[in-house]
Amino acid sequence: MAFSVGVPRSITSLRDYSLAKFWADLVAGITVGLVALPLAMAFAISSGVPPQAGLYTAIVAGFLVSALGGSTCQIGGPTGAFVVVVSGIIGKYGMDGLLMCTLMAGVMLMILGLTGLGTAVKYIPRPVVIGFTNGIAVLIASTQIKDFFGLKVTTPGDFLGRMSALFSGFSTLNGAATATGLVSLGVIVLMMRYVKKVPGSIVVLLGGTVAVWLLRLPVETIATRFGGIPAGLPRFTVPHFRPELMLTLLSPALTVTMLGAVESLLSAVVADRMAGDRHDSNTELFAQGVANFCSPFFGGLPATGAIARTATNIRSGAKTPMAGMIHAVVLLLILLVAAPLAKEIPLCVLAAILFVVAYNMGEWGEIPEILKLTKADISVWAITFLLTVFADLSVAVEVGMILAALLYIGKVTATTTVASITPGYVQEGMAHSLQVHALPDGVAAFRISGPFLFGSSDKLSVIDLGLASLPPVVLLRLRNMTAIDGTGLHALEGLADRLHATGRTLVVCGMRDQPGRLMRQAEFDRHLGHENICPTLEAAVVRARELLAAAV
Predict the structure, then answer these.
(1) 303 near 289, Cβ under 8 Å?
(2) Where are the domains of the chain?
(3) Which of 125, 121, 42, 123 is nearest to 86 (CA)?
(4) Which of 12, 64, 140, 459 could form a disulfide with 358, with the two C-beta atoms 3.0–4.6 Å apart?
(5) 241-246 long-range contacts, CB within 8 A, separation 24+
(6) How far is Cα 544 from Cα 475, in angstroms, rounded to an integer?
């Protein structure tokens, strides 16, 4: 089997690498590294793990995605899409379960890249993607309310329970935390609008931390909750493997795989548009798989392409994947040098940053466009969104995909028709001309148009309903049948057998490549005879005349 993974962009970019490109990559790498710092910690904290886990993920996975990936400017690391999944896995299976799940997802992503199956993620319907993106954004925002207002409550994992606890404990509101959070949120929003070149998250991270430290404000910080961030290199540790959890973790691992594949490829597409480039999907997915496989060995989380950080990287002037590798090195240096200072970061400031992240990732502008679609598409979006918020992301994705698949089957089925093309045997006014190939008496002709798959095989009832009145030879034209599967082939075999049982003969003609290959592979000629499978309509008419002559 030929593998689909190509040469990483970090290698191909060396062909014309220059000092000018290095300086551009250096500036971009430092900038996006500073932007990634608060986000990595915030995503980790909101996922229910210590902040250093997010930093370790951004360092290890971020470096590997840039070094091995198929995108020129992609930045990898922890993202908001995984917050809900990670917290749910930890709540059910603990940290061991999360590390196992990430390892499994890494293997699956590598397989997708190696086999070229990664491109299948483009078939995920837009309503499903928007539905769980909206839902994840709502969930992320709901997890930050406690820290933003400094509430002294214990929040459960489910959305309704969390909101009920927050409402009941709102009287414990911390004025200092609320004020700090509101100011931080306002600064980020204003800078996003008026000072776009300066990352607002870095400004509030530094400003909020200094303000809380100088004024001795009574707000919760990383130190008060986690005891600070350990300095030094990420420690290599082999995760504790629990074989009994493998089957149980298969569903969340598939969810992590799908989210990782979808978000990384979406981010790569955004990068292509901004940088005028074209990424290699399979190479990118293989790199994401390697990154997710290695991340747990350093206590890291699931990782994927980060759209906001990738966009920041490009706007900052990145030219090659070297910028992404520099961003990982910058985070490592911060971890080695400034980790003791990070313990003073207020959690309400990180909550404000994540409120903005949740809003930006929510793709709220897509909802009006979804509402212009069919009722079926709207239903898929709404069900995916509601299940994401009120049930479980894995369930939401699975149900959304099943609904979308059923709707797709319905739409495809509607395009398939089986109709008479013989004057005198017209069904519901669907008369067609055989043009120059006149049919002899004693022959009825029908044609199948469109894909003849499992959802449309029952349309052969058009022929069965008039079975008693059909002449000795039934000609079935397949020139316009674009594809067939096992169910469709079985339906044709059944039709041939039923006609034979009543003394009639089925002749088929004009198969395209895919239907023809499947018919030969399945030995379809056993049901009607090899001589009754004709390449053209003209040959089928000749065969019909032979059958009629032999019957006289």
Answers:
(1) no
(2) 20-406, 417-551
(3) 42
(4) 140
(5) 241/100, 242/96, 242/97, 242/100, 245/93, 245/96, 245/97, 245/100, 246/100, 246/104
(6) 8
Which residue carries 């994992």 as its tokens? Answer: 157
Instruction: Give the other-Cβ count within 10 Å of 437's Cβ.
Output: 16
Q: Rounded to whole angstroms, how far apart are CA atoms 413 and 53? A: 48
Provide the 3-class DSSP secondary structure of residue 552.
Answer: coil
Q: What's the full length of the chain, in residues?
A: 552
pTM for the model stands at 0.74
Report the DSSP beta bridge partners of residue 443: 473
Read off the amino acid at residue 454: F
**Spatial contact of 78 and 331, defined as CB atoms under 8 Å apart:** no
Query: d(Cα 294, Cα 67) in Å, to the nearest integer?
Result: 13
pLDDT digits (tens, 9 = 90+) for 438-457: 678 899 999 999 999 888 88
CATH of 417-551, one of 3.30.750.24, 1.10.3710.10, 1.20.1180.10, 3.90.1170.50: 3.30.750.24
Using CA atoms, how far residue 52 sits from 48, 78, 445, in Å, is: 12, 12, 72
Gap between the Cα atoms of 290 and 234, Å rounded: 17
State the Cα–Cα distance between residues 37 and 338, nearest whole angstrom.
11
Q: Encode pLDDT of 127-175 as tens digits.
A: 887 887 888 889 888 888 999 999 998 888 788 888 999 999 999 999 9
Confidence (pLDDT) at 435: 47
Give the bridge partners for 446, in sequence order. 420, 476
Q: Coil, helix or strand for 419?
A: strand
Crossing angle between the packed helical segments 175-194 and 200-215, to the nearest 10 degrees: 150
User: What is the phi-psi region of residue 322: left when phi exceeds 0, alpha when psi lies from -120 to 50, beta otherwise?
Assistant: alpha
Residue 482, Ramachandran bin (φ over 0: left; ψ between -120 and 50: alpha; else beta): alpha
